[in-house]
Amino acid sequence: MRREFIRTLTAELAAVHDYNAGRDWRGQRSIQTYVYETFEEDLFARVLEEAIGDPATAEEGMRLRFYYQDSGITQGSSHPGTTVSFPLVTLAREIRRLLALPVPFALRLPEVLAAIPSSRFTYKLDPGNLFWHEQSNALKGDAIVMAWDGKRPEVADWIGREVSRRLLATGSILDGLRERVSENLVRWPEKFQFPSPWDAATPEISRLLFINEYESAMGARRVQEIRSGSPALRVRTGASIPLQKSEGNFWRLLHPLDLAVYERSKSFAHLLVPDGDAGEEAQLAFDDLRYRDSPTPGKRGVCFAKVRDEIVDRSAGQIRGLVLDVTCGQGCPPFVEGDRAVLHPRFTDFTAPRYISRLLSLDAQPKDPFIRLLRDPQGFATPVTEADEVVADAEVLAHRRGGFTPSQARAFRQVLTDRLTLVWGPPGTGKTHFLATTLLSLIKASMMHGKPIRVGVTAFTHAAIENLLVKVHDSVDEFGLVAALPIYKLRSVKTTRGQRILEVLPHDRADTVIGYPSLLLGGTVHSFDRLAKVLPSLDLLVVDEARR
Fold first, then answer.
1. Is the C or the N end of the chain the one with fewer CB within 10 Å?
2. pLDDT tens-digit series, residues 402-417
3. In terms of CATH architecture, what is 226-351?
4. Domain boundaries, the chain
């Protein structure tokens, strides 16, 4: 039965894939797949896994898995080269998100069908005791047990008719749901095609390419789900902010926003659209993933906005206004004083395209150390030949500054002697203190023996990079390195404390500091990549928040 299901589904999708091939966009067809409950979503994923493991359906199963993507596909050796934003929609999840129904929490098909009937496809489903649980949509196993031994073949027909009834009921619910939330339905499913695999020779690189694109697609999906909620709820939670344009770049909030609520949405980039139905439709239709790294919104009928400053009423704890830099696309004329607009969250990912380019260049270099790290982390973490006197003095220096816990001491020793060390600990366990003390002890010990040392600090966020640099800066006096250790942040400083303490080093001035006997540089991966010609290697690289 599983083989028949996999082959039938593959054939249905392949027919649309073949139909779309060679046709222009307007002539192509879309497909949207639905399940009703989350357990069906899990069951569907398990069926695809089993199909891949079955030689008779492995090819069809992999082709389906490339389309019905989830994080589990990373375990394979080949990965889809494009992401599919909504390959499988779970209706019960969308009903809970979009509607408040006078039915039990279980959202059983019969009750939901009665609550949101379709005007075009009326259907009634009577839940009988043979197939239905009181608080679940799962099919009871009684009939399956009756049919299992083959003594009652008619029961198999009963099961088939029950499944058909449930499919018809689900179709009616889908139509009824569309009727009730039609104002939020402004995008069609994507034109269907089976994704092709990444053209990567190295399985590990293929996996990273897929993870990069999948995480970006899921990030865009989460932001789009925030924007598609009830307008009243979005305003109340600060996800959508109604504004009125004042002079220059100043915008007045039409509803003062609690400062704590605003802080939760502060990290987003933003869309700015005119207040009203046209603006709401434009923001709902906006394709975040397509424009994730674009500085302009093209012909989307929206504007991009960046918050430059906030006007805060500290006594009331409220945001009263915003200072915005606004870039409008075609079809969205510039705002003038008095215009009303709504600020919405926007997904951005300026690093994903850079990662793709870098990973593909690494794929062409199979002997690159990074490939070896991915394939054999333990083999990569070979001992390093650090001078015994440097190791001994570094341990003495660390001990004098308060020492480490036993686990930190083991990690410190490994940093001094191994090529690769992974340091893990939950929040509050002293990771930043450990890293700062480790860096300063090793730098000081190296300088005591006349050994030049260049250290890099990178992370997923500017805040993490600058937090560690500031911690090191605050501790240099304890190690007698106030004037002996230059500390720079490459290109720019983002955090308030970092701006008071850290010195910025532009990329084009990096060659002026490379010859220093000791040096601590902090920057993004992209910044260090920019320095590859003048700084081809470091003596020590710290990657903070590496789990991200």
1. N
2. 778 888 999 999 999 9
3. Beta Barrel (2.40)
4. 2-200, 226-351, 378-544
